[in-house]
Specification:
The protein is an alpha+beta fold. The protein contains 6 helices and 8 strands; from the N terminus they run αβαβββββββαααα. About 25% of the residues are buried.
């Protein structure tokens, strides 16, 4: 595995990730750019409900909330053993709700000509993007790790490829996309 196989991250991606996280004002991009950048920040936001058609079926709207808002109640999956004792299925921690109240709306035109992203309210994030990445990694990063693991590379090789060992600013870019919390197991 050579360092040329490092996960590709362009400077534009970092710019758009910052825009999508801060979202100080609504902005419009092409659907192709949205599809390229969303996997880098999809771990920051949770879908609120099903996609809606608005404006007489011309616009598809999907609403999201910050993962730290946590408006859904925690599921405590439990099993009762033969002695009648309740056992949790897996160890997890329950986060406090309402740590961040950001909600956004993503509007896709049905003719696939434009995507508009805007805030639903006045709130700003109460944390940095790295805190969101500690809770859940972006799907682009998870997918890259899975594809490298399928090639039977060791955890150390994958770690170094992702962190851009030997590549100028490789680890800095990855840190901005949530890779700084990765550890070798």
């Amino acid at each position: 595995m050579s360092t040329e196989t490092m996960m590709p991250i362009s400077a534009d991606i970092l710019h758009y990730c910052t825009l999508l996280f801060e979202l100080s004002k609504p902005f419009t991009i092409s659907p192709q750019i949205f599809d390229e950048i969303w996997p880098y920040v999809d771990s920051v936001y949770l879908k609120l409900e099903q996609e809606l058609l608005q404006a007489y079926g011309i616009v598809r709207v999907q609403k999201y909330e910050c993962r730290l808002r946590k408006s859904r109640k925690s599921n405590i999956a439990q099993v009762v053993d033969s002695d009648g004792k309740v056992i949790k299925r897996r160890q997890s921690s329950i986060r406090n709700a309402d740590l961040c109240n950001v909600r956004i709306k993503v509007s896709h035109s049905v003719d696939s000509s434009v995507v508009t992203i805007e805030r639903l309210d006045k709130y700003t994030h109460t944390h940095d993007i790295e805190e969101s990445f500690w809770i859940k990694k972006p799907s682009i990063l998870v997918g890259y790790i899975k594809s490298e693991a399928a090639k039977n590379y060791s955890a150390t090789q994958i770690y170094h490829a992702i962190h851009g060992a030997g590549i100028y600013k490789g680890s800095e870019w990855l840190k901005e996309l949530g890779g700084s919390s990765l550890k070798i197991c």
